[in-house]
Amino acid sequence: MSHLTDKNILVTGALGGIGSAICLAYARQGAGIIAHDRVDPTEVAVKTLTAELTAAGARDVCYLQADLGSREAIHAMFARLREDKRDVDVLVNNAAIQKTSPLADFPDDLWESIIAINLVAVYHCTKQALVDMRRKGWGRVINLASVHGLVASVNKSAYVAAKHGVVGLTREVALETAGQGITVNAICPGWTDTPIIAPQIEARQQRLDSSREEAIRHLVSEKQPDGGLIPPAHVADLALFLGGETARHITGTAMPIDGGWTCV
Fold first, then answer.
1. Are residues 199 and 119 in the same domain?
2. Of 9, 59, 95, 108, which alpha carbon lies 20 to 30 A from 244's?
3. Are residues 201 and 125 in the same domain?
4. Catalytic site residues?
5. Which pLDDT tens digit goes with each residue over 101-133?
6. Between the CA of residue 255 and those of 42, 85, 98, 245, 252, what are the distances in Å?
């Protein structure tokens, strides 16, 4: 993928499991990495990721801190990129938060925060990045939706609503950008080995009074027939493919990587 050496990729939520794996996959192809997250740039995790991406072969690495729940913060993030003359060629909307709770007990503020970060921020980031992509006549938008953008699960009303919205937005923006050298796709992972599911694993472990491994098998097998957590690197490989030239005719899709979850 030699064409990526002159491209910049912006990954939101870059310090998470899937986000960092995608950054690493693109770094190995020589792309410029713009890593976003909400933690302070002085944090050890940021310095560690930057060092790993540089060592992997990234053309350069830039870290941006922003609260994606704030429209103003998102606009400021893109304004800084333009001041630094960093175009966004590939946008990966990956940042997400989750809370499991029955609808009747769901804290209203948290419900709205999940929608803001998981869906509204995708709209704002996409709208901003498309300015660069349309000017250059080339671009890739890759939205990390979820299997919950295709099917529902109990006690996840905010997450399911947001991820269904991401899939719908993906399809609509793909139609708006068709024929402009821009593709817009969603990846829909099932149970993936990331920190976001840790609370659910811990809750299942306590309920079963079992080992963590047994709790994972019990939890995952309820929905995902293959019974195993998906490595973030596998999701990253799909994101890398969608950023490539051979995927230029793939747009408006919602691709499951879910161990058979959505087969029925």
1. no
2. 95
3. no
4. 159
5. 999 999 999 999 999 999 999 999 999 999 999
6. 36, 32, 21, 18, 10
Q: Give me the count of residues in the chain.
A: 264
Q: Containing domain of residue 224, as a range? A: 194-229
The tens digit of pLDDT for each residue in 189-222 reads 999 998 878 888 999 999 999 999 999 999 999 9
Q: Which two tokens stand for residue 81?
A: 């990129």
Rounded-to-integer distance, Cα 217 and Cα 221, Å? 6
CB 29 within 8 A of CB 244: no
Write the CA distances from 85 to 104, 160, 189, integer angstroms: 47, 36, 33
Looking at residue 128, the DSSP 8-state letter turns out to be: H
Q: Is residue 261 part of a domain?
A: no
Give counts: helices (H), strands (E), the chain. 9, 7
Q: Are 98 and 251 in contact (CB under 8 A)?
A: no
Element (H, E) at 207: helix 198-208
Do 156 and 224 sit in the same domain of this protein? Answer: no
Segment holding 239, helix H or strand E = helix 232-242
- 178: amino acid identity, one letter: A
Q: Is residue 81 part of a domain?
A: yes
**Cα–Cα distance between 114 and 124 in angstroms, integer?**
15
**Are 102 and 219 in the same domain?**
no
What is the identity of the amino acid at 170? T
Two tokens, residue 82: 């333009």
**CA–CA gap between residue 226 and residue 165 (Å, rounded):** 27
Asked if residue 16 is part of any domain, the answer here is: yes
Name the amino acid, one letter, at 107: P
